[in-house]
From TrEMBL, chain A:
Catalytic activity, as annotated: Li(+)(in) + Na(+)(out) = Li(+)(out) + Na(+)(in); Li(+)(out) + H(+)(in) = Li(+)(in) + H(+)(out); Na(+)(in) + H(+)(out) = Na(+)(out) + H(+)(in)
Topological relation to the membrane, as annotated: Multi-pass membrane protein
Biological processes per GO annotation: regulation of intracellular pH; sodium ion import across plasma membrane
Gene Ontology terms, MF aspect: calmodulin binding; potassium:proton antiporter activity; sodium:proton antiporter activity
Protein family membership: Belongs to the monovalent cation:proton antiporter 1 (CPA1) transporter (TC 2.A.36) family.
Superkingdom to which the source organism belongs: Eukaryota
Region annotation Disordered: where it falls in the sequence: 733-799
Keywords for the protein's UniProt record, in alphabetical order: Antiport, Calmodulin-binding, Cell membrane, Glycoprotein, Ion transport, Lipoprotein, Membrane, Palmitate, Phosphoprotein, Sodium, Sodium transport, Transmembrane, Transmembrane helix, Transport, Ubl conjugation
UniProt cross-references to InterPro entries, sorted A to Z: Cation/H_exchanger_CPA1, Cation/H_exchanger_TM, NaH_exchanger, NHE-1-like, NHE_CaM-bd
Cation/H+ exchanger transmembrane domain span: 95-489
Protein name: Sodium/hydrogen exchanger
Organism annotation: Hucho hucho
Compartment(s): Basolateral cell membrane
Record keyword Zinc present: no
From TrEMBL, chain B:
InterPro entries linked: CHP3, EF-hand-dom_pair, EF_Hand_1_Ca_BS, EF_hand_dom
Main subcellular location: other
Protein name (record): Calcineurin B homologous protein 3
GO CC annotation, single: ruffle membrane
SMART domains: EFh
Entry-linked PROSITE patterns: EF_HAND_1 (PS00018), EF_HAND_2 (PS50222)
Length: 799, 220
């Protein structure tokens, strides 16, 4: 997005900046006032339940309100806000969150200095302030139920589903150490020292007892996944550190849950016996393992269900979401760790579900997860801001400042101490820089606040003080640490994330190395790491995959699965965006098959024309290509909510034509994966061979007598105004684009979808030129700035 | 071929320890294993290794076994294979799998990488001509997929071709249609696996190896 702004001249960007700021402020005011209105008529405010909605009704009734029934005028138009106010307010909040997100990206300078989370909290403060200014009571938006049941699950599911399993498992020991031991250490250190400080004379805090202090310590010591995700996403550090901090934030949930319940349970009893401690440990094991078990069960159920969805592709994504949510709720029902259940569910079901669901469903799942988690995250930060304004607060300088300092100190000591122990067992040791980032990245967030909010007012009279301290700590970590971590990362020259794309060679050697090391371990007679992993893989292949993966795909070894994935990607890339010199770097196809084949008699052209993969795969690739290119005739006639109809016209005329052009180039392009050779395209042998191999040939290749390349397109439904514009644009560009200029001469041809003539080599250059100076408007249609293309999607099924 | 080993004396072990960098304890353990595999004889042959039951499930079994008998891995500047190896050679092959120590200089790290990648390269380059040809690479992929049945065999060729194309593209860039890319040389191999942090991945945890976990490798 910042690219677009940068394209303007400096003067333009300044006015754009101003406009952006103005827009932002306007939006805030707008939303603030509407929300005020909403707050005003929300039922929490018992005093005023007649303001918004009742006036007109009362007016009407008042007029005719004496004893008998008299005919009233028929209410043509009435306002009934009460009726819809709950969903309306929810939608307003969501809209505010999304608009804010949009707004921040309009001001690129700001978003590179200040992390988004900080800005969102500020927006929340503003909105809360506005509501308060208007004299209304701020709604308790960060209600714990809402937070734990609605806002948190999407974020965790997104994290769990796309969790990079291999690095996670490789570092699981370290992560567990940090999560369990680290959090325990933090909780007791902070809680204990706070109690000691409270006992000091002169702080007026002596009524705070030990157990509430420990409870407070356990609430505030947990690293928060939402905050970590929000901040770390923007700094792009290397995978190891990211997975360490992030994994820790996920797994410490079990510890937090147990400690919280333990101290809360016994804080009115006033003491904790050793027996309780033992029970606590047992509880911890049950909570964590139980959570994982619940998640795994639901994950397997989801995988199993997805095996049978081949006929109802439309609802496939729904299974993923519903099963995961139910896993979370079931775990919460038993007070097990919901977060761990969700992570386990997502991670377990992913390899099998992805093998079963269609490509579209996979995209849907990805997009929905990203969308929901993004909105959730935004809302959480805004609500934090609002909740801060709402109060109630009880500020105590000593308590708050000691909390902040202690948290920082305990985190640093904890990380350094643990790393010292851990490094004895690690192969890749953690350096001082790594330790610093891990310590500094221990951000607190909304979970701490919600847990504090849940405390009972009667049992904990110092609840407000706790809440104030928690909020201060959250603000400190998010603002100070969040803002400074990026420059610090640059300053310390911490290794950043490598944007390495996965290559087939690396994949081959990963596999090779795995087997090699397993073999060496066997030769040494040593039951190592690799031995067990190998055993697990074989077990998985033999039994589990057979149950959970539909059709014959379970037999597919990982390497082949990876290879096919790359094939698909290239096929789609070629069709959608490729062309000419702009090929993505995944295809350095200046080298062709001829270069590596040893010199021998070229095989028969017909044989070479056939791609060299199995029939099933061939069909799938063709289906994908076809669905992208082929025009369908059912559009606009039978709109049916329950079926998905491939609809190229949806995107407008523009990329439809472009796709045609790309298709031509597909014939000539030789790629690493689709070994379709670049034989002269108008060789009749080649055309016939291709035709023969594909019974559903979607291109009819007639020998064209004229040398002019033509494309005949069925103009069955000329509809969008775009189409007209496009035609004009192209005819304006005119003569240079030979292949495109002939479009107007289309005739209705009911039998043939498209007719394309593979053109001579001449069009290739023209196409490249055309591609070079193509309309930016076109690119916007084609470009898909969805969730960032991270390499999670390239993960093979099981490591 | 190899120096004949008497029942490991302290002195010889110390000598080996100095040369290979293993600790005395590790060498002791490896020696015990060696004795187990060879039935207390002096030299190890292919049959001894082939009789380890756990290796049966391994798709690249033959290549692993060959690697032990490949002269190039035994720090000799010859090519070809030997029929039997002694304990010292066994140990030499094992040194390729030691983890990288902390605090290595850049140069040492680079040397370690080269050494480990050289081992891998030698495993692929079966005819010892210094390049991995297309045929050899195909063989590698076929072996990897050998447990996968029919599906494996059909796509193995395509995968190997794709991989080869990728190497050629990365290392040679644009090639004329009549140029021919003979095969992957060691330098090319280094280049394509540059991001593959082999010095940390290619290791076996000799630390934890103690006699309690050693199992007898022979099938009864």
């Amino acid at each position: 997005m910042s690219v677009r702004v940068a394209l303007h001249s400096p003067r333009g960007s300044r006015s754009f900046l101003e406009r952006g700021l103005l827009l932002l402020v306007m939006l805030i005011f707008l939303e603030g006032t509407v929300l005020t209105l909403g707050a005003a008529s929300s039922p929490d405010i018992s005093a005023q339940d007649n303001t918004g909605g009742g006036d007109d009704q009362r007016g009407i009734e008042g007029r005719h309100g004496h004893a008998n029934y008299t005919k009233k005028a028929f209410p043509v138009l009435s306002l009934d806000y009460r009726h819809i106010h709950v969903p309306f307010e929810i939608s307003l909040w969501v809209l505010l969150a999304s608009l804010m997100k949009l707004g921040f990206h309009l001001i690129p300078r700001l978003s590179s200095i200040v992390p988004e989370s900080c800005l969102l909290i500020v927006v929340g403060l503003l909105v809360g302030g506005l509501i308060k200014l208007a004299g209304e009571e701020v709604p308790p938006v960060l209600d714990s139920n809402l937070f734990f049941l609605c806002l948190l699950p999407p974020i965790i599911l997104d994290a769990g589903y796309f969790l990079p399993i291999r690095p996670f498992m490789e570092n699981i020991g370290t992560i567990l150490m940090f999560a369990v031991v680290g959090t325990l250490w933090n909780a007791f250190f902070v809680g204990g020292l706070l109690y000691a400080v409270c006992q000091i004379e002169g702080t007026y805090l002596s009524q705070v007892e030990l157990l509430p202090c420990l409870l407070f310590g356990s609430i505030i010591s947990a690293v928060d996944p939402v905050a970590v995700l929000a901040v770390f996403e923007e700094i792009h550090i290397n995978e190891l550190l990211h997975i360490l901090v992030f994994g820790e934030s996920l797994l410490n949930d079990a510890v937090t849950v147990v400690l919280y319940h333990l101290f809360e349970e016994y804080s009115d009893a006033g003491e904790v016996t050793p027996m309780d401690v033992v029970l606590g440990v047992i509880c911890f094991l049950i909570v964590s393992l139980g959570g994982i078990a619940v998640g795994t069960i639901y994950g397997i159920l989801a995988a199993f269900t997805s095996r049978f969805t081949s006929h109802t592709r439309v609802i496939e994504p729904l299974f993923v979401f519903v099963y995961s949510y139910m896993a979370y709720l079931s775990a919460e029902m038993f007070h097990l760790s919901g977060i761990m259940a969700l992570i386990a569910c997502g991670a377990v079901m992913r390899p099998y579900v992805e093998a079963n669901i269609s490509h579209k469903s996979h995209t849907t799942v990805k997009y929905f997860l990203k969308m929901w988690s993004s909105v959730s995250e935004t809302l959480i930060f805004i609500f934090l801001g609002v909740a801060t304004v709402a109060g109630p607060h009880a500020w105590n300088w000593t308590f708050v400042s000691v909390t902040v300092i202690l948290c920082l100190v305990s985190r640093v000591i904890g990380v350094v101490g643990l790393t010292f122990i851990i490094n004895k067992f690690r192969i890749v040791k953690l350096t001082t820089k790594d330790q610093f980032i891990v310590a500094y990245g221990g951000l607190r967030g909304a979970i701490a606040f919600s847990l504090g909010y849940l405390l009972d007012k009667d049992l904990f009279p110092m609840r407000t003080m706790f809440l104030t301290a928690i909020i201060t700590e959250i603000f400190f970590t998010v603002f100070v640490q969040g803002m400074t971590i990026k420059p610090l990362v640059d300053l310390l020259a911490v290794k950043k994330k490598q944007e390495a794309k996965r290559s087939i060679n690396e994949e081959i050697h990963t596999q090779f190395l795995d087997h090699l090391l397993t073999g060496i371990e066997d030769i040494c007679g040593h039951y190592g790491h690799h031995h067990w992993k190998d055993k697990l893989n074989r077990f998985n292949k033999k039994y589990i995959k057979k149950c959970l993966i539909a059709g014959e795909r379970y037999k597919e070894p990982q390497l082949i699965a990876f290879y096919h994935k790359m094939e698909f990607k290239q096929a789609i890339e070629l069709v959608e965006s490729g062309g000419g010199v702009k090929l993505p770097s995944a295809m350095p196809s200046q080298v062709s098959m001829q270069n590596i084949q040893p010199k021998k008699l070229p095989p028969a052209v017909a044989e070479r024309a056939l791609p060299q993969f199995t029939k099933g795969r061939e069909e799938e690739i063709r289906k994908i290509l076809r669905s992208n290119l082929q025009k369908t005739r059912q559009r606009l006639r039978s709109y049916n909510r329950h079926t998905l109809v491939a609809d190229p016209f949806e995107d407008g005329w523009n990329d439809f034509i472009l796709k045609k052009q790309r298709m031509i180039e597909l014939e000539k392009k030789m790629s690493n994966y689709l070994t379709v050779p670049a034989a002269p395209p108008d060789s009749p042998t080649m055309c016939r061979a291709r035709l023969a191999s594909d019974p559903n040939a979607f291109y009819n290749i007639k020998a064209s007598s004229d040398g002019v390349p033509t494309i005949q397109v069925d103009l069955a439904s000329p509809q969008s105004p775009d189409s007209v514009n496009m035609l004009n644009e192209f005819s304006k560009r005119g003569a240079t684009d030979q292949g495109l200029g002939q479009r107007e001469g289309a005739d209705r041809d009911e039998d043939q979808g498209l007719m394309m003539k593979p053109s001579s080599a001449g069009i290739e250059e023209k196409g490249e030129e055309g591609g070079g100076n193509k309309n930016p408007g076109l690119m916007r249609c084609l470009s898909d700035p969805g969730p960032s293309n991270e390499d999670e999607e390239d993960e093979p099924f099981l490591p | 071929m190899g120096a004949s080993q008497s029942a490991g004396t302290e002195h010889e072990f110390q000598d080996l320890a100095d040369r290979t960098g293993f600790s005395l304890e590790q060498i002791g353990n490896i020696n015990k294993r060696f004795r187990q595999l060879t039935n207390n004889e002096e030299t190890l042959s292919r049959e001894d290794l082939a009789s380890i039951p756990a290796l049966d499930n391994n798709p690249i079994r033959a290549q692993i076994i060959n690697a032990f008998f490949d002269k190039r891995n035994l720090h000799q500047n010859e090519t070809g294979t030997v029929q039997e190896i002694g304990f010292e050679e066994f140990l030499l092959v094992m040194t390729h799998f030691r983890p990288a120590a902390m605090g290595l200089t850049e140069e040492e790290r680079e040397n370690l990488r080269r050494e480990k990648l050289r081992f891998l390269f030698n495993m692929h380059d079966t005819d010892s001509d210094g390049t991995i040809t297309l045929e050899e690479y195909r063989w590698v992929v076929e072996e990897l997929l050998s447990k996968a049945g029919i599906i494996g065999q059909e796509t193995a060729k395509a995968i190997a071709d794709a991989a080869m194309l990728e190497v050629a593209g990365t290392t040679r860039g644009k090639m004329e249609p009549d140029e021919f890319y003979e095969g992957i040389t060691f330098e090319n191999f280094l280049q394509i696996l540059k991001t593959f942090d082999i010095e940390t991945r290619m290791h076996v945890r000799f630390l934890n190896m103690d006699t309690a976990t050693l199992r007898c490798g022979k099938s009864k």
